[in-house]
Amino acid sequence: MNSATQTWRSQLDRARRAWRSSPMPAFFAWWGGELRELLPVRWQAYFRAGNVWCLLRHHGGQWSVHRSGQPAVSAPWSDELDAPEQQALLKSAVTGIDPQDLRLALCLPQDAVLRRRIVLPEAARDNLRQIGAFEMDRQTPFRIEQVYYDLRELSVSVTAGRIAAELVAVPRAAVDAQLEQLRKAGIAIDAVDLCEGDKRLGVNLLPPEMARAHPDPRRRLNIGLAIAALVLLLLCLGQWLHNREDTLTAMQSQVDDMRADAQKIADLRKQLEDSAGASGFLAHRKTDAVAIVDVLQDLTTRIPDDTWLERFTIDSGGRIGIQGQSAKAAPLIDVLQSSKLITGANFQGVIQRDPQTNKERFYMDAQLVKPKSAKPAASSTAGATP
C-alpha cells in the first residue's frame, strides 16, 4: 500500500468516524423507518437498506449461524462436511437476506480474547489502529505479529482532551485454524469479532489486507440516481430562473403598457384642460363683450332718419369705427353720448359734404362700454393665467 492510498484511506476512515459519531445517522435511520412504514408491507423489504450481520460460531466441531441481535440459531452442521454441503447449509441458514447485504463475522468466545482499556490523547482518535500497534507491547504479553487486534473508542466520560479506548487482541494461532477451515469450505468472512450475548462487539480483528471486498452492483445505480437527481435539480433551478425571467419580462411589458396608458391619460387631461381653458376663454369673452346686435340696435334707435351708415367696424379691443353720411353730422356726438353701450365718440378727420348726395360725410370712432361683470371675471382669469 503506497502512501497516497494510505492517506486517502485514513481520510476516509476519519470521515466515517465523524459521520458515525454525529446524530445524523440516527436521525436518518428514524426518518427512513417512518417513511418505510408508509409503504405497503410487500414493498418494505426492498427498502430495508444496510448490511445484515450474521455471526458464525464454531463449537465442538460444528458451525452455527444467527443474525446479530437475534437469539434464534440455525441448525448446526459439522465442519467435516464437503465444501458444497457447508455452503448449502449456510445459504439455507441465511435465507431471506439479500446476498449483497449479507455480512459474515467469525464470532469468538469471551475467554479467547484479551481486552484492555486505555486512555489516549484526543488527537489519537484518527489513528487508533496505529496506536494499538504501538501499545501492543505495553498492554499485552504479545508482539504485534503474533495477534489479530483492533482498537475501538468507548463512549465513556474521561478527562477533557482525552478519549477512552479498548484494545481487543487474540492470538493468531487460535484463529488461523478456524480461518483455514472456512477457506477450505469456500466460506468467506468479513470480520473476526467478539460475541456479547447474541450481538457482536463491533470490532474487526482481521487486518485490512485480509478484508473481503464486496462488489456493490447497486453503486452504479446509486451513482446514476445521484447524477439524475443533480441534473433534475439543475433543471429545476434553470426552469425557476427561466420562469422568473418570463415573469419579469411580463411585468416589464405590463409596466410599459401602463406607462403608455398613463401618458395617454396625461395627454387627454392636457387636452381637456386646454379645451376647458379655451371654452372658459370664449365664455369670458362672451360675457366681457357686448353683442354686436345690441350695438346696431342702439345705433339704429339713436341716429336720426336723415343719417345712414356706409361702414361699421368693431375690432378685438372694442374699438368702433363708423363711417356714413348725414344731413347734419355734428349733432351725432351728442346723440351718442347718452348711449350705455358706446362711449368716447369723436370725429376723425374733417367733415366734408358729398356733392352727389348733398350730405355731410363723416368718420367717427368710439369705444364699447364693457359690462360690469367683466372686471371680476377678467381679474380671476388674470390671476389663474401664469
TrEMBL record:
Pfam families registered for this protein in UniProt: PilN
Family matches, as SUPFAM superfamilies: Actin-like ATPase domain (SSF53067)
Keywords linked to the UniProt accession: Membrane, Transmembrane, Transmembrane helix
InterPro entries assigned: ATPase_NBD, Extracell_DNA_Util/SecSys_Comp, PilN
Regions that span the bilayer: 221-241
Name of the protein described by the UniProt record: Fimbrial assembly protein
UniProt source species: Dyella dinghuensis
